[in-house]
Amino acid sequence: MTRARHHWVLPVSLIAALTLSLLPLPQFLLPLRPYWLGLVLAYWVIEDPDRVGLGFAFLVGLAGDLVSDGLLGEQALRLVVMAFILQRFRARLRFFPLSQQALAVGGLMLNDRIVTSAIHVVLREPALPSTFWLSPLAGMLLWPLIFLLLDALRLGSWRRR
Predict the structure, then answer these.
(1) Which domain holds residue 106?
(2) How far apart are CA 87 and CA 50, in angstroms?
């Protein structure tokens, strides 16, 4: 049985991730802000590798750099590293139960923080606060929700009753 694919979900989900990353948060919640763009891109690399690869991750990262106030190319590098790791382990990760996927994505988000801190060290940027390392935990906890939501939108399963 074939299911209809909803091609609008990919660009809309990326725009939503960019928007969520720009929303202001209270100061005490800032360290818990997940890397929305990374989480959404991770879903697409896992579930639709024919459309989303390293080049796509680079372009999405450049778009993220343009809308944020960060260094141009930083998010592009981070997302390319993330997409590369996901492509390498996609065959296994795709069939993990959602709880194990969440742990793997948490490790991926932690790796993203390591890449970010390495960029800051190389460029002699100010040291990142210790609360900087809390964000991967939030991403790991949100992964099942993001995965199920995007899967339902992509496959149109919310309409089947």
Answers:
(1) 9-155
(2) 11
pTM recorded for the entire structure: 0.90
Q: Please choose, from the candidates 147, 115, 149, 116, the residue with its C-alpha nearest in 3D space to the C-alpha of residue 39.
A: 147
Domain annotation covers residue 4: no
Tell me the per-residue pLDDT of 68-99, one tens digit each, with 9 for 90 and over: 888 899 999 999 999 999 999 999 998 999 99
Q: Would you give the DSSP letter of residue 4?
A: -
Domain tally for the chain? 1
- pLDDT below 50 — which residues of the chain? 1-2, 160-161
Residue 125 structure tokens: 């940027």
CATH number of the domain encompassing residue 17: 1.10.1760
